[in-house]
Specification:
Layout: H1 2-5, H2 8-16, H3 30-34, H4 40-46, H5 59-64, E1 66-67, E2 73-76, H6 91-97, E3 100-102, H7 105-114
Length: about 120
Amino acid sequence: MLSLLRPLTTRLPSLLSRPTSLPSFPSPSPSLLRSPFSTTATAFALARKPTKLKLKTHKGAAKRWTAIANGQFKRGKVGRVHLNSNGNMSPTRLNRLGQTAYARTIERKLLRRLLPYA
C-alpha cells in the first residue's frame, strides 16, 4: 500500500524492469513499407491475421433435414398437415406420411456440403 503512495519517479526503475508481453503481429508486406505515406504503425494495422473461412449453412436444407448420430440425415414426409381430412386420403397413407424418411446415399454427399456443421 505504501509503495503505491510513493511518487512515480521512485517507482519508475521497478516498473521498467518488469517483463512485458506484447502481442506478436505478422510482418507487413514489402509493398506497404515502400509506400511514402506509410509508417510502421499503419503497416501493422493494415496487415491482416490469417483467418479460417466460415462455411455457410443452407437454411432451406437446415429447416428440412436433421443430422443423426450415425452420420445419416432424416426428414419428415410432405403432405401430412394440410387437406388430408376430406375423405380422399386413406388412413394407411396418413400413417405412412407420419413416418420419418432418411436420406439416400447419393443425397448424403450433397447434404454434408449444405449442412457443414450438422
